[in-house]
Amino acid sequence: MTSSNNYCVIMAGGIGSRFWPYSRKNKPKQFLDFFGAGQTLLQLTFDRYKKIVPQENIFVITNIAYENLVKEQLSELDESQILLEPTRRNTAPCIAWASQHIQQLNPDANIIVAPADHLILKEEEFIEAIQKGLEFVAHSPQLLTLGIKPSRPETGYGYIQITDEKQGDFYKVKTFVEKPQLEFAKIFVESEEFYWNSGIFLWNVHTILDAFGNIMPEIASKLTAGEEGFTSSPNISIDYGIMEKAENVYVQICNFGWADLGTWGSLHEALPKDQQKNVIIKGNTLLYECKNNIIAVPKGKLAVLQGLEDYLVADTDNVLLICRKDDESTIRRYVNDVQIKLGDEFV
Amino acid sequence: MTSSNNYCVIMAGGIGSRFWPYSRKNKPKQFLDFFGAGQTLLQLTFDRYKKIVPQENIFVITNIAYENLVKEQLSELDESQILLEPTRRNTAPCIAWASQHIQQLNPDANIIVAPADHLILKEEEFIEAIQKGLEFVAHSPQLLTLGIKPSRPETGYGYIQITDEKQGDFYKVKTFVEKPQLEFAKIFVESEEFYWNSGIFLWNVHTILDAFGNIMPEIASKLTAGEEGFTSSPNISIDYGIMEKAENVYVQICNFGWADLGTWGSLHEALPKDQQKNVIIKGNTLLYECKNNIIAVPKGKLAVLQGLEDYLVADTDNVLLICRKDDESTIRRYVNDVQIKLGDEFV
User: Fold this and answer.
1) How far is B315 from chain A (nearest CA, A)?
2) Closest Cα to residue A308, out of A334, A278, A331?
3) B308–A302 C-beta distance less than 8 A
4) Coil, helix or strand at residue B160
5) How far apart are CA B169 and CA B185, in angstroms?
6) What pTM was estimated for this model as a whole?
7) Cβ(B313)–Cβ(B285) under 8 Å?
8) Is the separation of the CB atoms in B303 and B320 below 8 Å?
9) CA B117, CA B28: separation in Å to the nearest integer?
10) Interface mutation vs chain A, best among B286, B294, B306, B337, most A CBs within 10 Å
11) pLDDT, tens digit, for every residue of B101-144?
12) Cα distance from A65 to chain B (closest Cα, Å)?
């Protein structure tokens, strides 16, 4: 295996509405410099994979609405490395299309498929894990997913249950579990049989296209027609469409400080906290009797907060959102209400 | 009495720190269009008194730091109608100076002294009351203060206790009471002997200058030296320096929808509320499970709030303040902390 057989597909087409109001329809979270660190999540993700695969082997697949954002933020990409989805069709059609595209370039390709909005805190461990995974899928016709050792009974993530069956350090998957209720999540963590489903996948291009051909032939056939077939593909996730149904799915157990920045709550879990467990993103703050909050205010702004516990305070541009941190699943409802009552200006 | 004997002194020199972050050191609340109605509190106050006294008889007394703000906001004022205090010395020196100034212009002047930041909801009743009061002080050498029939046991206002002794509809004052504790405030309201001290005063210029001469000769003598004496005057309020000590103080009982916009809480009491008792000042809001809050966001901004009860949310410019409404007396502490820790930029 030479590294020129290794490819990466960064999925950057999501709307990120659960991160509203920071994430906006015309600029979702992957295009934001979320931590005020000078790089957007997409740029951080790209730089991370550049250390693992040749730059010209990295593809970004996104909605056509975000074409300019991708070009601006990753100016080093050739136009041919940007795949533009004409419509939103979730991850299965997206991955099928990218896989066919890469197969035409290199029929021996090993592919990493990764979302653009994950937080990776330990990069060295991450790179090592990915390289080990690439090695595995280059020589074994398995679908590999990265499983994260759970540090808490998180109800916002999906879980993977492993079997005893191993190939080297890679465990065969027994089953995938959708976001569980707390009592189950607690049992999962204690069992040591369950791992967080990171949503980062590795496979050889043959293996994934075989899986599509066997399990979702309707997608495989549509995409041979090229971009035109995309719109008529079913709206379905790779997890539901392929991973939960395939027989050859393996897990690599990892520990590289991973968080899916899917929600504000996940950000609170992932980031350093003050003594009262408040997480502060950008901005200046003075806190009095405040506990366990997540606070995001724009750079240059000061937030003086008193008497808040378990709240999200997100102030940006023309929107201020304050809600109970536990109720953040209702953010989508707020966004929907805002859209209906006030129009596009605020979503 | 002709109306040309009637004068008005608008006091517009306060810092308004209890209204931070809307009120800023370089632009206190009287200079703000607080309700997004197109006029600042000072402009509203000026327009109100223009209906009662000749425009050229209205004086604005303010700190020298706010000279330009007054000139900008009241461009119809002649420069001679703006009295600039070289330092902050509370209301007694301010009123003594303005009184001497007006006496030189018209020794028969009847003067209304009024803060620039009061909310008057029923203007017709207000004008009628002031005219009646002016008539009284033109013919009777009394210090007249407007007392407001209390609608609730407010602990943020001072109270005036009346005697049975009357001149027409004007009651002689028994005593002034500083901001009371709740249990006393309740008794006051029930007694029907106590009225809110509005801080709006009426008197003939002779009467007030006699009072200064008798009760605070040190101020009277200093101010004959003109502006130079101002700085060496004691820092003392008219209430404490004169009203509580004079023997000839009368109250006119009024009911014109008055509120001292001294604090956010007073604003909450004064303004119309939604069904959940939330008061919204400017901006767009979507509220979920929110009760009894006061919410101020800039025009054009949207606040989506969930699960807040009894809070103040004040978002403006480069500061966001969220605190329990009952704890707003600590706003001064926050402002102080901000000044020390972050400097002038935010105060």
Assistant:
1) 8
2) A278
3) no
4) strand
5) 24
6) 0.83
7) no
8) no
9) 10
10) B306
11) 999 999 999 999 999 999 898 999 999 999 999 999 999 999 99
12) 25
